[in-house]
Amino acid sequence: MFKNYTMNQLILPLDIEMKLQVNLRFTRFSVRGKAKVANEMGLALMAVNLRKFTANQ
After folding, report:
1. 1-57 pLDDT, tens digit each
2. What is the pTM of this model?
3. Quick check: is 23 in a domain?
């Protein structure tokens, strides 16, 4: 009935995880599958890096 999806969980440093959750309101993935999750995580991390980049300029 229920499937175990713990293999797809990512382990991130607390600093990045909190930035994703608080600033970007990113708490869960909207897709399934490792490749799709990797793409969505890449976009989220890119958004964090763009925020850092624009804050430093």
Report:
1. 445 555 556 666 767 777 777 777 777 888 888 899 888 888 888 988 898 899 888
2. 0.65
3. no
Within-domain flag for 48: yes
What is the residue range of 40's domain? 29-57
Backbone angles phi, psi at 12, to 5 degrees: -120, 155
Structural contact between residues 44 and 26, judged by C-beta atoms closer than 8 angstroms: yes
| Contact by Cβ (8 Å): 47, 18 | no
Q: What are 36-49's pLDDT values in tens digits? A: 988 888 888 898 88
Structure tokens at 37: 């999750």
13, 11, 24: which is closest to 50 by C-alpha?
Answer: 24
Which candidate, 30, 33, 54, places its Cα nearest to that of 43?
Answer: 30
Asked whether residue 7 is assigned to any structural domain, the reply reads no
Provide the residue type at 41 as one letter: M
